[in-house]
């Protein structure tokens, strides 16, 4: 599901009438336009630790020409002091929605962070200001996935009917101690 609305958005600079409300609008005819020296940064600060499984941006070279980014860096962390780059993308003449490359974030398929920063480093034709027409951040929808309890009950039922072995309903998949409640991943509401 799209979780961009769960965050506070800030930019390093913006032209009047071309700020965060225009970038967050569902229409890609509106855009954020920076107004200052490069790099241009868009900071997306979540109020809870989130597990991001995808991001995409909307760029349009045909409409924006020299305002189109050619190099964007993506950083994430718990705050401004520990941001680490997890991806960098270069563009020739982009047009449309582009999925952000998550290959630099390591073996874990989920990016966990409080803060995501989009840093526009270069523009086409050495343009000073930039246009970004859309940005969306996605997390897995845990409400749509089967619950752990239901899954456990199904497995327990399969085991007992197949092997004729009675397995208590409270059986756990993990061996040893149960995971404490405080260490579980928070649920976004």
UniProtKB/TrEMBL annotation:
GO BP terms, alphabetized: anaphase-promoting complex-dependent catabolic process; cell division; protein K11-linked ubiquitination
Sequence segments annotated as region (Disordered): 149-172
PROSITE patterns hit by this protein: DOC
InterPro entries the UniProt entry points to: APC10/Doc1, APC_su10/DOC_dom, Galactose-bd-like_sf
Keyword Cell cycle: yes
Coiled coil: none
Pfam families: ANAPC10
CC terms in the record's Gene Ontology section: anaphase-promoting complex
Transmembrane intervals: none
Keyword set, alphabetical order: Cell cycle, Cell division, Mitosis, Ubl conjugation pathway
Superkingdom classification of source: Eukaryota
Domain DOC: 1-164
Family per record: Belongs to the APC10 family.
Official protein name in the record: Galactose-binding like protein
